[in-house]
Design goal:
The protein is mainly alpha-helical. It has one domain. Helix content is 78%, strand content 0%. Helix 1 runs antiparallel to helix 2 and helix 3 runs antiparallel to helix 5. The structure holds protoporphyrin IX containing FE. The site of protoporphyrin IX containing FE has 25 residues, from helix 1, helix 2, helix 3 and helix 5.
Amino acid sequence: MTSTWFHIAALAIAFLLVFASGYRMSRIGKPYPTGIFTAHKLASLVVLAFLVLSVRSVNGGSYPTVLEWTVLTLAVFAMLATMSTGGFVSAPGRSSQGLAGRLHRVTPYLAVLLAATSLVIWWD
Ligand code: HEM
């Protein structure tokens, strides 16, 4: 397996882990099981790291265009928005039915879509 495919596979697996643990926590509700909650947070950091590594890997060395930078920046923003809304949802005394909870049910899909689009358009 080349390092490019390794990075993309690690990104996909980390995303799957984050989604699976997220759905599980939604079903269980508060208090979230520590193991699943920790896995969810750690895997979300792995997603962010491998998004950047994957984009670097698929770029064959050409100078990135404004469109490529814009989509990657939006993908990173979507990730950060997902992480911060996740932080609000999990804060003590906060309900998952509030604004942060509703956003945390939408921003993950935006993050996947923008991450996948970044990989496609950065590919040389
Ligand atoms: C890459 C970043 C992340 C992604 C893609 C993500 C994705 C998800 C998904 C898909 C769900 C299930 C939502 C649903 O029921 O439809 C979820 C739930 C949840 N996430 Fe995340 N998440 C991320 C980061 C975080 C972080 C950093 C935290 C905490 C600091 C967090 C805390 C939570 C909590 C507490 C729930 C359960 C909410 C509930 O009770 O309904 N998430 N997440």
